[in-house]
Design goal:
By secondary structure, the chain is of the alpha/beta class. It has a single domain (3-21, 31-113, 132-296), classed as UDP-N-acetylmuramoyl-L-alanine:D-glutamate ligase (3-Layer(aba) Sandwich), CATH 3.40.1190. The chain has 9 helices and 13 strands. The strands form 2 sheets. A 9-stranded mixed β-sheet has the order 5-4-1-8-9-10-11-12-13, with helices on both faces. It has a 4-stranded mixed β-sheet with strand order 3-2-6-7. Helix 8 (260-275) packs across helix 9 (287-296). The longest helix has 16 residues, at 260-275. The two termini are 26 Å apart.
């Protein structure tokens, strides 16, 4: 069993299924609803665990009722929360989310910016026995520690690069793999042409780089040349958390020793299956289902 550490944000998502995204100051009635754990690193950790890996999460939350819900949900997914730091008088993060009939989502997130960003406690706590480390850019200080730890151990250090990406400059310099969202790559490079932006990111960072673009798939470099792995075609119900579980699946595959192209295809399958179900993280598939889906789609 590969052991993957994820570092970053953990939240609670309050998710509502609606016909159309709200546009007016009126009352709306949801078709369905869910209260589920969310957040880039937390969703990735839950995906790792569901896919058969051993997941360890490092995150900062408040010592409050939302924090209790976050930890309880992660423990139910068999995620090791021993490095989830509970901060006195801090307020844990939560989001109000609407998902429309096409599966697209609108997110309003509360994040307590007074919650300590300090990551000095994390450096001595990172275990030696890890196969890969994944960090998001929502906690830049933690991401810097995480990527440095991966480099020291000679294991994949994957950065989930969401805007504003350059807040995590130190992590960008240390990461072996940088997986941008399309928005994150445009933010990083300052240009609209994604393929040109990816080339610029590769030249600047020296890391293996890719960008995910939803139903358009994933673009990257292979043997120095541009390459692409298409997304799997599915009937989309809910895209919430798809990028997060993609990163978790990708990190797990790299930790298992898979090459980047194979890891991308595996992550694409996991994210596609997640999109077929309502409820964010709750729609993440297990390993057997993901592998069966890949075989059936070959």
């Amino acid at each position: 069993m590969s052991r993957i550490m994820t570092v970053g944000v953990a939240v609670i998502d309050i998710v509502m299924s609606v016909d159309e995204l709200p546009r007016h100051p009126e009352k709306y009635r949801a078709r369905d609803g869910a209260i589920i754990g969310g957040g880039c690193a937390a969703n990735a950790a839950a995906a790792v665990a569901r896919l058969g890996g051993e997941a360890l999460l490092a995150a900062r939350i408040g010592r409050d009722p939302i924090g209790e819900m976050i930890v309880a949900g992660l423990k139910a997914e068999s995620v090791d929360c021993s490095l989830v730091r509970r901060i006195e008088d801090g307020r844990s993060s939560f989001s109000s989310i609407y998902v429309d009939a096409d599966g697209e989502r609108q997110i309003v997130n509360f994040r307590d910016m007074a919650l300590s960003f300090d990551a000095s406690w994390l450096e001595p706590a990172v275990p030696d026995a890890l196969d890969a480390i994944l960090a998001d850019t929502r906690w830049p200080q933690g991401a810097a520690v995480a990527m440095a730890a991966a480099r020291e151990r000679g294991i994949p250090g994957i950065l989930d690069a969401e805007a504003p990406v350059r807040e995590a400059e130190e992590a960008l310099r240390q990461a072996s793999h940088i997986a941008f969202s399309a928005q994150g790559l445009r933010d990083f490079a300052g240009i609209e042409d994604l393929d040109a932006a990816l080339g610029s990111a590769r030249e600047e960072t020296g890391a293996w780089v890719c960008y995910t673009d939803g139903a358009k798939g994933v673009s990257f470099f292979e043997a120095g040349a541009p390459a692409h792995v298409p997304a799997f075609a599915v009937d989309v119900v809910d895209t919430l958390g798809a990028g997060d579980v993609w990163h978790g699946a990708f990190a797990l595959a790299l930790g298992e020793g898979q090459a980047e192209r194979e890891a991308i295809r595996f992550a694409n399958a996991v994210a596609a299956l997640k999109c077929t179900r309502f409820g964010g993280r709750a729609g993440t598939p297990g390993r057997a289902e993901a592998e069966a889906f890949m075989r059936s789609s070959a």
